[in-house]
Please model this.
Amino acid sequence: MEFQWLNTFITAAECGNFRRTAELLYISQPTVTVHIKQLEKELGILLFHREGKKIKLTEEGTRYLVHAKRLLEVYQSGLEDLTSFSQGYTRKLILGISPLIADTILPYVLKSYTKQYPEVEISVKIIESVDIEHAVLKEEVDLGLSCLNSSHPSLLCELLSKDRVILVAPHDGRDAESAPPLDEEEVLTTNYLITHNHPGYWDHLCRMVKSKYPSVRMMKVSQVHITKRFIVEGLGVSFLPTSTVRRELLEGRLLEVDCHTIQLPEANTYAIMKYDHSKQKELLKFISNYRL
Model:
């Protein structure tokens, strides 16, 4: 049996047409027919019913499709592993990272890590914090970096860092040395407050702001990088972790507003693992040298 036959069979089963299968695989339609006939001969079953130009899986074909996908997945996984090994990688680490954490200095940290440990192949999946726990449980990732704590009995959760949350506003164009500081009440009552760009602290913070400034107008925006763009464009203000706005503050695109009446929360970063293996420990020890 050739794996090319399996690939042709799976593609034909998904699109239901030999002509379309040929187009997707960049082969001729007669070649598609040959692949299917060879596989049917090998298995001793009929995989498709032909209905004019359309094809439909037989009962046996439907049953075998599950196995064909598994076989092809194992084959492709083996090729990927050999390719990685030939490129000098001897270990692989799959990370699930919250988009908010990815917007900190983490890219720089990972770049430094790969230079120090060139034998480790890093794969990154950007996953919302609420979904990271599930990804770790299902072993889709080896290590999750999340904004949310995990109390699942099958998982290990470690607090990596605590970050100060600050109120940020767009630059008002005034000279930083001679202009008076921005006023908390004025900033919050004359702008939209952009909320819910962090999964951990917004519900409680919204209640506190509303109790102090009942007239404040709020706008939910789920992503930090979009929130920052909106603020820079003058659409509103927001409470954000310091690590996510460090560059914008240094470049003068955003300004920090001192808060005297609102108790500001902290934004925490957690490492979530199913196994406390050496590769996870090594990366966490490296990350601990930085402030995310």
In short: The two ends are 51 Å apart (CA to CA). Residues 59-86 form the longest helix (28 residues). The chain has a mean pLDDT of 90.
